[in-house]
Amino acid sequence: PQPVYLSDYQPPAYRVIHTELTFDLDPAQTRVKARLSFERHPDVEATTPLFLNGEQLTLTSLAIEGQPLDESAYRVDEYGLTIERVPASFTLESEVSIAPEANTALEGLYQSKGMYCTQCEAEGFRRITYYPDRPDVMATFRVTVIGDKSREPVLLANGNLIEKGELEGNRHFVTWEDPHPKPCYLFALVAGDLKKIEDHFTTMNGRKVTLQLWVEAENVSKTEHAMASLKRAMTWDEETYGREYDLDLFMIVAVNDFNMGAMENKGLNIFNSAAVLTHPDTATDAAFQQVEGIVAHEYFHNWSGNRVTCRDWFQLSLKEGFTVFRDQCFSADTNSAPVKRIQDVSFFRTAQFAEDAGPTAHPVRPDHYIEITNFYTLTVYEKGAEIVRMLCNLVGWDAFRRGSDLYFSRFDGQAVTIEDFVTCMEEVSGVDLGQFMRWYEQAGTPEIDAHGEYDYAHAEYHLTLRQRTPATPGQTDKEPLHIPVRMGLVGTKSGQDLTLTLDGEKQGKDTVVHLRGDEQTFVFTEVAEAPVPSLLRHFSAPVKMHFPYSREDLAFLLTHDSDGFNRWDAGQRLAMLALDDLIAAHRNGVEKVMDSRVTDAYRALLASPTDDKAVLAEMLALPTEAYIAEQQPLVDIDAIHAAREFVRQSLAMALRDEFIAVYEANQSNERYAPTPEQIGQRSLKNVALSYLMSIEDEQAIVFCQTQFEAEHNMTDVRHALTLLVHSDRDEMASPALKAFGEKWAHDPLVMDQWFTIQVTRPQEDALERVKHLMQHPAFSLKNPNKVRALIGAFAQNRINFHRLDGAGYALLADVVIELNRLNPEIAARLITPLTRWQRFDETRQALMHKQLERIKAQPLSSNVYEVVEKALA
Ligand code: DPP
Ligand code: ZN
User: Fold this and answer.
1) Residue range 586-629, pLDDT digits in tens
2) CA 316 to ligand 2 center in whole angstroms
3) Which atom of ligand 1 sits closest to the CA of residue 324?
């Protein structure tokens, strides 16, 4: 497979102005008729051939201006159709046939539990019909869907329903029209036996919009939260960005088999059922919050993505980075803002940092790719969102909003680039963003080595920041970035933020210093007392900040920092210092001793009054094994696990009474609601329970049993079940697991959780359980959610996936090899943990390498090929 380069971009020679499609649905042989109005670009020579993408299509007829084309006039190969000579403007008619039932890749038109649905982003439309499948070709669409009246009573496509009727042979049709020009990746079609839940929304200018959620009959009771989230998102986008919905109808459909979380097709969003269905009995708090965020994300794409789209797929972060930033702000406004930031950053620093440090590291705007589906990454999405967040902070919210207005009005209906977006921000703010653009071009996580000195005699504090970005594949030399470091100085006597004076100018108690060079020293004057610096507040830039904090400094910040995010971070840093010692002790075979300063800090946390229980729960949670691993030069799987367990158990023993008190104080019989208050209360209670269960405290076991049996809500039930299954109390875990599995056998989303709980247990039998569960009737390799819940989850079970006999790696490779044939996109994603082989000890390196080689020896899809090839480079 050959890479595509950003530098090779050429505007389309022929554009489609209007697209008419007719689908005659059939599982084995769906006929797709296309009638496309083309126009040649005025600068393009008349001899330029017309190329249309098309894969896995059977062409049955082809005509231009009503004249069938002679076979010598065109060429078909595995990538598409070329017609040598075409007029400057013409109508092309084609008919192809496709087989939705055989489509296990879940790209293009496929069947999910008998229902038809589509996924066209990024390049799925070429599996539906011959078409210039690129985002810079935007056309209006008129789509007729013909289906069986009994099997497919519901026939949906983008836009507004304009006609429907009966046909012979128990068939019927519906015609849809989308007046907004769109690229074909936003095309969608759904057909099946679905039930609808309907609501309404009146926009800020009085447009009455019908909102519909389409689900299978058994899921009707799981739609309330998604509908409420949608309405909140619509209001938020009006109030925050001035963006109004632009059609009379907005539809969301839930499907079981889906590669991604959801898809923002114009007027007809298609969702993975896991990203839309919730019910207190079946979904956890985390799932409720995720659904809210994804519903909002896809809705926000209507402007940031659909009305203004990407010129080419290298610009993917233009829509994704901006839209993730928008959904993060929405969730922060709707829930606990500090917790949202803590959770996002915590995930980011674990998973995106790992990606940016591995062999698949790439810039937020990549400059080449083989398979674009491999670039729907944490870097493009989450680091892209961090860049937009920095932009927003650099120019200030008011200017950012004006820049966003300018962007949407200037480029409405167009396919544009990241420069177009940044230029709008520059124009409205006057801020020079030239150097800032490097954030889009340079891969790798920048690291800042900071050090500070307090000069008593002159009452000055000198802060020196030095930046470096490590080499990444294909990018050895890095230029300095423009890094905004938000910070404060906390007085060690007063425990208060000091008023800052920088270069003679008063800054307030919190300021942003701009690191632009390799190294800069910032001199703060009139610093009346020795301070501890609080750096990178709110995670103001996606970097690693190193500062030689002592444990006393960190304990001090943990209590006194005015920035909630940095208070949490101080706790994480403090725990990390203790963990580092314990990891070393484990490796050296020395007895482990708990650092009493950490215990004291946690005791103080538990004793301090708090109005945000969710924040406290986050503060009490130890860094995950994955995060700890990210901080180590070489990952020692066993030492990390042992050290972390030791800290957990030491804290549980030392603070047993406190944890029990917290648990009891946060019991509630309130009716379940996914409110920030209730969620905070449940998280706090459950964190306490986790600590207690780490020592298998008898009282805690009773709490767990009772909580499981009470069946108040899935958050509590799942947590209790997980703790039981992850403990050594099999005599209690087994019956609970069995009862749960039987009770929910009919519900695929709950069964996903049942799988995950079992394969993430730390006991040695986890791998055997995976193999066993792969034979379970509820499991299927063809369903991406099942693959993620069982195989993906097992690969996160660090001590078991990284077993020293290599059986975990071999299992993953077996699945990748099989999935490579069925669903290359999911197969390629699943390899990720193996690609990080260089981070481990020699034995594990060799074992992982061997599995990568084994995969590489197979006939591979371009998706899997690209990932494996990078991993072995
Ligand atoms: N559906 C995916 C998302 O919304 C890809 N656009 O991010
Ligand atoms: Zn998106």
Assistant:
1) 999 999 999 999 999 999 999 988 889 999 999 999 999 999 99
2) 9
3) 7
Q: Is the CB of 298 under 6 A from ligand 1?
A: yes
> To test the ligand 1 pocket, which listed residue (120, 186, 263, 372) has its Cβ within 8 A of the most ligand atoms?
263
What is the pLDDT confidence band of residue 233, given thresholds at 50, 70 and 90? very high
Distance 805 CA to ligand 2 centre (A): 40
pLDDT band at 712; cut points 50, 70, 90: very high
Domain extent listing, the chain: 4-276, 309-441, 447-541, 744-873
Distance 320 CA to ligand 2 centre (A): 5
Which atom of ligand 1 approaches the CA of 297 most closely? 4
Measured CA to CA, the distance from residue 432 to residue 422 in angstroms comes to 10
Q: Which residue's alpha carbon is at the smallest distance from atom 5 of ligand 1?
A: 263
What percent of the chain has a predicted confidence (pLDDT) above 90? 99
The total number of residues written for the chain in this structure: 873
Contact 8, 313 (CB under 8 A): no
What pLDDT, on a 0 to 100 scale, did the predictor assign at position 609? 83
The strand pairing partners of 489, in sequence order, are 533
The per-residue pLDDT for 72 is 95
Instruction: Please give the average per-residue pLDDT across 144-173, as a whole number.
Output: 98
CATH tag, 447-541: 2.60.40.1840
Q: Maximum Cα–Cα distance for the chain, whole Å?
A: 95
Distance 297 CA to ligand 2 centre (A): 6
Look at ligand 1, atom 6, and give the residue with the nearest C-alpha.
263
Q: For residue 450, which phi and psi values (nearest 5 degrees)?
A: -110, 145
Query: Residue by residue, what is the 3-state secondary structure of 742-809?
Result: HHCCCCHHHHHHHHHHHHCCCCCCHHHHHHHHCCCCCCCCCCHHHHHHHHHHHHCCHHHHCCCCCHHH
Query: Would you state the pLDDT for residue 17?
Result: 98
**What CA–CA distances, in Å, run from 677 to 287, 333, 612, 681, 791?**
16, 14, 8, 6, 34
| 435 CA to centre of own chain | 27
Ligand 1 binding pocket mutation candidate from 376, 381, 829 (most atoms within 8 A of CB): 376
Query: How much distance in Å is there from the Cα of 417 to the middle of ligand 2?
Result: 16
Which of 321, 366, 330, 369 shows the shortest CA–CA distance to 348?
Answer: 321
CATH node for 744-873: 1.25.50.10
Q: What value of ipTM does the predicted structure carry?
A: 0.98
Please name the residues in contact with 550: beta carbons below 8 A apart, sequence gap of 6 or more: none
Active site residues: 298
CATH ID of 4-276, from 3.40.50.1370, 3.20.20.190, 2.60.40.1730, 3.40.630.30: 2.60.40.1730
Cβ of 825 closer than 6 Å to ligand 1, yes or no, is no
Return the CATH class of domain 309-441.
mainly alpha
The answer to whether 591 and 644 are in contact (CB under 8 A) is no
106 lines ligand 1 (CB under 6 A): no
Strands 460-468 and 74-77: unpaired
Q: Specify the pLDDT at position 232.
A: 98
- CB of 260 closer than 6 angstroms to any ligand 1 atom: yes
Query: Six-digit token pair at 6?
Result: 């950003």
Q: Can you give the pLDDT at residue 611?
A: 82
Q: Ligand 1 atom 2: the closest Cα is on which residue?
A: 263
Atom of ligand 1 nearest to the CA of 320: 7
**What's the pLDDT band for 307 if we cut at 50, 70, 90?**
very high
Tell me whether the CATH fold assigned to 4-276 matches the one assigned to 447-541: yes
Decide: 618 and 679 in contact? Cβ < 8 Å.
no
Pocket test for ligand 1, best of 320, 323, 328 (most atoms within 8 A of CB): 320
User: Taking the CB of residue 139, how many other CB atoms lie within 10 A of it?
Assistant: 22
pLDDT score, position 866 = 98
Q: Which atom of ligand 1 is nearest to the CA of 298?
A: 4
Q: How many angstroms does the Cα of residue 381 sit away from the middle of ligand 1?
A: 9
